[in-house]
Amino acid sequence: MITLYDLLLGGVLPGVMAMLTLSGVWKLTHNGASSWRTAVVVGFLVGMWALDAQAIGVLSAIAKSLRIQEAKDFLALVVILGVFPDAIAVYGKQGRVTAWLLRVALCVFLPWRLLTGSVYLPNATAVPNPFDTGAWSTFKAICWLGGIAAMLTSLWGLFLAARDHAPRVRSILTAMVALAAAITLALSGSITYGQLMGVLVATLTGCAIASIYWKLERGPDAAAGPILMAFGGVLILAHFFAELKMLYALPLVLAFTLAGGWFFPGKRWSNPLRCAVCLILIAVVVILAGIDFAEAQNNPYAGYSGM
């Protein structure tokens, strides 16, 4: 059960930290991209560590990101790594090429690292297991990892392509879609991953408020790397480890793409249609997840086939 303390640590704290960080970096550098990237990383890490600190203390929570104990602990690393491609891309043609190589590498690394050691990608052992453990074949692993990597890379490119179009609208919509994702994860039975997505919601909200206040002409595209590593990472964990339905995951990804990515800039109908489609998608997903949750509460043995 989520307590008021959880909301303060996983919601208010990262939002305030993101808002203060973006404002501080902007006042020091007047660089919108750096302000967004720094704020997203600081907000997400502070919120993630604050939630863990309730049980194990602040230092131990931070140490978990260095001495990995479970898959979600890798999120801190990939969110930080997500900063570098876009930061390098400003250094001419060679920088742009290097940046895209790093983006592709990160989009492959994310699902591989989160799933390695799980039932899907078990660590190699000297003695083969004669039973069907559910482990992927090499072909299936390539299809899954390649498909996820291709989707993340495409999403990254669409975010970057939207750089000069409606940054305020995109800032608000990405936070709203992340909120819908957090609610969906919680309704689907994963409070832990729902809280992590909630940290991203708070972070994006804090960034949006500060960005609008300072009239920055940059939006989520400026921090596409860390945002997508966090959003994609939590959805991957929720789908493979908490059985988040693909019926929910794919519309959320599509809504996130429309919220923060390229969508016919310059057309008068672009923003109204973007908003309408995003809101419809997230409303449908949350309603369906709510129906499933209500059915599960009324019949906890639904779907149980017996012996």
TrEMBL record:
<feature type="transmembrane region" description="Helical">
    <location>
        <begin position="99"/>
        <end position="121"/>
    </location>
</feature>
<feature type="transmembrane region" description="Helical">
    <location>
        <begin position="74"/>
        <end position="92"/>
    </location>
</feature>
<feature type="transmembrane region" description="Helical">
    <location>
        <begin position="141"/>
        <end position="160"/>
    </location>
</feature>
<feature type="transmembrane region" description="Helical">
    <location>
        <begin position="197"/>
        <end position="216"/>
    </location>
</feature>
<keyword id="KW-1133">Transmembrane helix</keyword>
<keyword id="KW-0472">Membrane</keyword>
<feature type="transmembrane region" description="Helical">
    <location>
        <begin position="172"/>
        <end position="191"/>
    </location>
</feature>
<feature type="transmembrane region" description="Helical">
    <location>
        <begin position="38"/>
        <end position="62"/>
    </location>
</feature>
<feature type="transmembrane region" description="Helical">
    <location>
        <begin position="247"/>
        <end position="264"/>
    </location>
</feature>
<feature type="transmembrane region" description="Helical">
    <location>
        <begin position="6"/>
        <end position="26"/>
    </location>
</feature>
<keyword id="KW-0812">Transmembrane</keyword>
<feature type="transmembrane region" description="Helical">
    <location>
        <begin position="223"/>
        <end position="241"/>
    </location>
</feature>
<protein>
    <submittedName>
        <fullName>Uncharacterized protein</fullName>
    </submittedName>
</protein>
<feature type="transmembrane region" description="Helical">
    <location>
        <begin position="276"/>
        <end position="294"/>
    </location>
</feature>
